What we know:
Blueprint (H helix, E strand, L loop, with lengths): L5 E5 L14 H12 L5 E2 L5 E10 L5 E10 L7 H10 L7 E7 L7 E5 L7 H10 L5 E6 L9 H5 L8 H21 L1 H9 L2
Parallel strand pairs: 1-4, 1-5, 5-7
Antiparallel strand pairs: 2-3, 3-4, 6-7
Helix pairs in contact: 1-5, 2-3, 5-6
Amino acid sequence: MDTAPWLVVGLGNPGARxxxxxxxxxxxxxxxxARQASATLRAHKAGQAWAAEVRLGTGAGGLxxxxxxxxxxxxxxxxSGGPVAGLAKFYKVPxxxxxxxHDELDIEPGQVRLxxxxxxxxHNGLRSVSQSLGTRDYLRVRLGIGRPPGxxxxxxxxxxxxxxxxxxxxxxxVGDGADAVLDLTGLGLxxxxxxWHSR
Length: 199
């Protein structure tokens, strides 16, 4: 059903106190895609999300790119699934066109990986999305933040800001995440994986 838009959801926690946290890098990517599309995310009538309808990037021959809905849940991370399922239903988006962008402890900092389906790896946002969609077979853009140093608790690590000294690396990760979404929606999963996983 190629007439359906893509639904690209960036996971994170709402509010200024969480904005710079590692756990919010998925939301940062969606904000970057909205910026590139000159769009503003607004409260959506389907509930509990900020969203914008856009054209992603540029398609073949310089034509407008894929139709998409960019979204950030306005709930806390562990309740992300309700907003994702609500938007998918509202826009009639099949699960194979749902793209969830999220932080990933088990990937080296700065690396981007793409996959469809699989487990949640202890990520509460993904667990909520899987439960609400009734499947794990949605697409994921996984943004590497690495494991915490020493004995730091992973929960404390993801709920802390990217260090200011790593600002450039953070901006690169967000930019790469946005580019990976464009490749995924424009080229398909296999071609996008080949591009990003060979880096």
